Amino acid sequence: MLTVRYDQLGVVAGDRLLDMGAGAGRHAFEARRRGAHVVAFDRDMVDIRKAGATLFAMEESEDLPATGSSSCVNGDALRLPFPDGTFDRIICSEVMEHINDDRIAARELVRVLRSGGTMAVTVPSWGPEKVNWALDSDYHAPASVGGHVRIYRKSAIEARLKDAGVDVTGSHRAHGLHSPYWWLKCAFGVNAEPNTVVKKYHDLLVWDLMKRPAATQIPEKLLAPVIGKSLVVYARKP
């Protein structure tokens, strides 16, 4: 399940791409399949080990473009361990809302991006996120263990990136079918044992992911601009 549009980001074979806050690695995997030199970066050792295991398995079993490579790095988003201008492309998906000092995080992203390079930053959309916070405080707390510390309006995340030194070039929302799922999950308790309704909706999302049927693709296309779970902002470093 990808949130970022790779064509809009401008990913091509041979690019040096940082997946900052890679988690389990979904965006890193796709970038590697497109022939990029991928660095999956995360502070969570459990996640980065899982991503590394999958990337290793891909290198061993898939016919991947020879133009690319993959590696994993554990570290802090506020102190990225890379020289200035290391990367051609950066993906930072669902990370900024977890970071107390997002100004430093944004500056670090811009620092390691080369001049003329592009980035895609995704955060939870303001409206759907407000509903989640209202329904269940456990959804976003506690911040001390990685919970959400803020809700971004589109203008706020764009301003944060501009202040860090990049030009915003576009945006869109993604995952329109996912917001109702999280509303249901929060309504019944985000940490509660999933009930039948939540499980059935989850099955629908898995079916959508695996089969991409018209029955879900059409509603997704209609709902994403209105209640998309994620906001994606694209930017370019001058």
> Unreliable segments (pLDDT under 50, ≥5 consecutive)?
none
Overall mean pLDDT score? 96
Distance between the termini: 30 Å
> How many distinct beta strands?
7
Structural class: alpha/beta
Shape: globular
Q: How many individual helices?
A: 9
Which helices and strands, and how do they pair?
Elements: H1 6-9, E1 16-20, H2 26-33, E2 37-42, H3 45-61, E3 69-74, E4 87-93, H4 102-112, E5 113-124, H5 126-135, H6 154-164, E6 167-174, H7 178-188, H8 196-211, H9 214-227, E7 230-236
Parallel strand pairs: 1-2, 1-4, 2-3, 4-5
Antiparallel strand pairs: 5-7, 6-7
Helix pairs in contact: 2-3, 4-6, 5-7, 7-8
Structure description:
This protein is an alpha/beta fold and 238 residues long. The chain has nine helices and seven strands; from the N terminus they run H-E-H-E-H-E-E-H-E-H-H-E-H-H-H-E. It has helices at residues 6-9, 26-33, 45-61, 102-112, 126-135, 154-164, 178-188, 196-211, 214-227; strands spanning 16-20, 37-42, 69-74, 87-93, 113-124, 167-174, 230-236. A seven-stranded mixed beta sheet has the order 3-2-1-4-5-7-6, with helices on both faces. Helix 2 (26-33) packs parallel to helix 3, helix 5 (126-135) runs parallel beside helix 7 (178-188) and helix 7 packs antiparallel against helix 8. The protein is globular. It starts with 5 loop residues before the first helix and ends with a strand. The mean pLDDT is 96.
